[in-house]
TrEMBL record, chain A:
NCBIfam families: PRK15447.1. It comes from Vogesella oryzagri. It comes from the Bacteria. Keywords: 4Fe-4S, Iron, Iron-sulfur, Metal-binding, Ubiquinone biosynthesis. The gene is ubiV. Forms a heterodimer with UbiU. This is Ubiquinone biosynthesis protein UbiV. Required for O(2)-independent ubiquinone (coenzyme Q) biosynthesis. Together with UbiU, is essential for the C6-hydroxylation reaction in the oxygen-independent ubiquinone biosynthesis pathway. Pathway: Cofactor biosynthesis; ubiquinone biosynthesis. Pfam families: Peptidase_U32. [4Fe-4S] cluster binds at residues 43, 178, 191, 195. Belongs to the peptidase U32 family. UbiV subfamily.
UniProtKB/TrEMBL annotation, chain B:
Coiled coil: none annotated. The keyword Iron-sulfur applies. Pathway: Cofactor biosynthesis; ubiquinone biosynthesis. It comes from the Bacteria. The lineage of its organism: Bacteria, Pseudomonadati, Pseudomonadota, Betaproteobacteria, Neisseriales. This is Ubiquinone biosynthesis protein UbiU. It comes from Vogesella oryzagri. Required for O(2)-independent ubiquinone (coenzyme Q) biosynthesis. Together with UbiV, is essential for the C6-hydroxylation reaction in the oxygen-independent ubiquinone biosynthesis pathway. Pfam families: Peptidase_U32 (PF01136). Keywords: 4Fe-4S, Iron, Iron-sulfur, Metal-binding, Ubiquinone biosynthesis. The gene is ubiU. The keyword Iron applies. InterPro entries: Peptidase_U32 (IPR001539), RNA/ubiquinone_mod_enzymes (IPR051454), UbiU (IPR043692). [4Fe-4S] cluster binds at residues 172, 179, 196, 235. Belongs to the peptidase U32 family. UbiU subfamily.
């Protein structure tokens, strides 16, 4: 029996060369996805695609029959950040994912609906209800939220769709400092775009060689790959309507296929650990440390 | 030009008195539970100590601010709402909130209660600050430690909300309210439990390589026998990235804006905040005294930080190091 879950692609969190991005989305628009999120969420210096290019790409994807959503930058610091944000919002057509209260302000002033992104810090029903009044149609809980808490908040807000982060290195923190530039002993203003060399970020290991975190410019991610593939069957009862796959450099088509198969009620065949950019983790969903891995009875990892 | 208020931390009644006695304009504190972002054992106030602290501060003309700056968790926000009711009852001069749902509650239930948007509310731009003003009547916002001085000036120029900035104390290298590193390692974060790298998960182990500092079993730092060992705050540990080992995110260091005080006065910040509710009364007394003198001197047109004041704050800093943090572009 198939599951009532939409499969969606989250925004690309890494910095890839323009051609690679265009090829990636050309391919992704043929995958069994209901929705694709586009745009630069992490760093204002990443301009292989400019705002106008993302807007055009969203239009192409919509023309190919998929829903496109433009994701806004999560950490807004400068006037030029706000200028790009206004341009993104005033794109004319495409729905926005708001990742900062500043974006919510601009959307609300224009009376536009939006997706409340994972960086908005919605931790309870009252806050989600408030964002609903401001125009949120769908929300993505903070990635650290447990499945039990998601269920409670979703149940209290049945008119707002719940979409959860279900695959990929977890976006854990944002800073005004660029850690990739710091690694290369460069200033952020002269970073030489070294992120381009690290299409899945740079793994940060403990001095016991435990893969712990990953550096992605101003963002710090988990080294581990969060996966809810083994939890999918339980998600609809927890109020979840959509699962989000986060783009990665390799094997993403196979990851999407594995999720699509599981949603279709088939047993996914893929060896998940082989497809992951780091060790599999799922602790957050079970109310534990995010780095933990709770095995399920039919776990295939 | 009005002088910015000096806002000082009080993790306990003795610290509150130390701040008041040494020249704070405001003191901020939290309740003994997870409704505030310094939810540490032995810290914070119950109703009785809060009343006494408020009385003490008020008698000396000092304002009191109650921090309820974690995010209410789950389907019911009752514990956090109760903390807001308690704040109103206690008669504090303002509450410091981060959660939009709680700001909504406070503005409806207690329309006369003054609201400050906490640094944990992550408002790094004037559009976010102005949304909080429009929705909740927020009168002051504390900016995350991510902006350059010019960017702080830009925020001030585009809002009528008072702007408070950090002046001294342990430096968060991550944007406040946007850091889940602690829960990734332990299951508890500032947003969910009011803690970062919580002590109950810390273990020190003497090994053949030296002293290992672990957080929930994860090796955060390793100190050689001739090195002083420090607390394993996640973002200030030593890690290996592509073959090089070091402080990949940030060194143990404190923010110190003394050299920037004349500029902060010029751009019109409303308040300067000192971090450190987890610090001792002696620390609070010293830092408050130094900053009080520095502010008064800057108000009289002083352009340079007093070397003695810099030295005093240097000794009180994490790792005896200070930085201008994001105020200074090259730090980024």
């Amino acid at each position: 029996m198939s599951l009532p879950l939409q499969l969606v692609l989250g925004p690309l969190l890494y910095f890839w060369p323009r051609d690679q991005v265009m090829n990636f989305y050309a391919e992704a628009s043929t995958w069994p996805l209901q929705r694709l999120y586009l745009g630069e969420v992490v760093c204002s210096r990443r301009q292989q695609l400019r705002t106008q290019d993302w807007i055009a790409l969203a239009a192409d994807i919509a023309a190919a029959g998929k829903q496109a959503v433009l994701s806004s930058q999560a950490l807004l610091e400068s006037e030029s950040d706000l200028k790009r944000l206004r341009k993104l919002i005033d794109n004319g057509d495409t729905l926005l994912e708001a990742n900062d209260a500043g974006a919510v302000h601009l959307l609300q002033q224009r009376g536009l609906p939006f997706v409340a992104g994972p960086h908005l810090n919605i931790y309870n029903s009252d806050t989600l209800r408030l964002y609903g009044r401001l125009g949120a149609q769908r929300w993505v809980p903070p990635v650290e939220m447990s499945g039990d808490t998601v269920r409670l908040i979703a149940a209290a807000n049945p008119d707002i769709e719940t979409e959860v982060f279900a695959w990929g290195r977890l976006p854990l923190a944002l800073s005004s400092r660029c850690f990739t530039a710091r690694h290369y002993q460069l200033n952020k203003d002269d970073c030489q775009f070294r992120c381009l060399e690290h299409p899945d970020g740079m793994t940060l290991a403990t001095r016991e060689a435990q893969d712990f975190l990953a550096i992605n410019g101003i963002q710090t991610m988990s080294a581990g790959c969060h996966s809810l593939l083994d939890e999918l069957a339980a998600l609809p009862a927890q109020g979840v309507r959509a699962v989000r796959i986060s783009p990665q450099h390799q094997h993403l088509a196979a990851v999407v296929q594995a999720f699509a198969a599981a949603i279709a009620g088939q047993t996914p065949l893929a060896d998940l650990a082989r497809l992951a950019p780091g060790p599999l983790v799922n602790g957050y969903w079970h109310g534990e440390a995010g780095i933990a891995l709770k095995e399920t009875a039919h776990g295939c990892a | 030009m009005p002088l910015p208020e000096l806002v000082c931390p009080a993790g306990s009644l003795p610290s509150l008195k130390a701040a008041v006695d040494n020249g704070a304009d405001c003191v901020y504190f939290g309740l003994k539970n997870d409704t505030n972002a310094r939810n540490f054992a032995g810290l914070n106030f119950d109703a009785k100590s809060a009343s006494e602290g408020i009385r003490y501060a008020r008698a000396k003309g000092v304002k009191t601010l109650l921090a309820i700056n974690t995010f209410a968790q789950g389907a019911e926000s009752a514990r956090w709402q109760h903390a807001i009711d308690e704040a109103a009852e206690l008669g504090v001069d303002a509450v410091i909130l981060a959660d939009f749902g709680l700001l909504d509650y406070a503005s409806r239930r207690h329309p006369d209660l003054r609201l400050h948007l906490s640094v944990q509310g992550s408002a790094s731009n004037y559009e976010a600050v102005n949304l909080a003003q429009q929705l909740f009547g927020v009168q002051r916002a504390v900016l995350p430690r991510v902006l350059t001085l010019a960017q702080v000036e830009q925020v001030i120029a585009n809002t009528t909300v008072e702007i408070e900035v950090f002046g001294f104390g342990s430096l968060c290298v991550m944007a406040e309210g946007r850091c889940l590193l602690s829960s990734y390692a332990t299951g508890q974060s500032p947003n969910t439990h009011g803690v970062c790298s919580p002590a109950r998960f810390v273990r020190w182990e003497e090994g053949t390589h030296g002293m290992d500092a672990r957080l929930n079993g994860i090796l955060i730092d390793r100190f050689s026998p001739d090195e002083p060992s420090g607390y394993p705050t996640l973002c200030k540990g030593r890690f290996e990235v592509e073959g090089s080992t070091g402080y990949a995110l940030e060194e143990p260091t404190s923010l110190n804006v003394l050299p920037l005080l004349p500029e902060l006065l010029r751009i019109g910040v409303a308040a300067i905040k000192v971090e450190g509710r987890q610090r001792s009364p002696a620390y609070v007394a010293q830092v408050t005294r130094v900053l009080r003198q520095a502010l008064d001197k800057a108000a009289q047109g002083g352009r340079h930080a007093d070397p003695l004041a810099m030295a005093t704050l240097g000794k009180l800093s994490e790792g005896q190091q200070v930085t201008l943090g994001a105020y200074n572009r090259p730090w980024k």
